[in-house]
Amino acid sequence: MKTEKMSARLMQGNEAIAEGAIAAGVTFFAGYPITPSTEIAEQMAALLPKIGGTFLQMEDEIGAMGAILGASLAGAKVMDATSGPGFSLKQELIGYAACAEIPCVLVNVQRVGPSTGQPTAPAQGDVMQTRWGTHGDHPIIVLSPWSVREAFDMTVTAVNYAERFRSPVILLTDEIVGHLRENVTLPAPEELSIYPRRLPKTTRAEGYQPYAVGEDLVPDVARFGDGFRIHVTGLLHDETGFPSGSPLVTEQLLRRLHEKIDRVGAEILHTEEAFMEDADCAVVSYGGTARTAYEAVRTARADGIRVGFLRLQTIWPFADAAIGRLAARVQRILVAELNYGQLTHEITRAAHGTPVRPCLKYNMLDFTPQEIAADIRRMNEEAGV
Question: Based on the structure, what is the number of domains in the chain?
Answer without folding.
Answer: 2
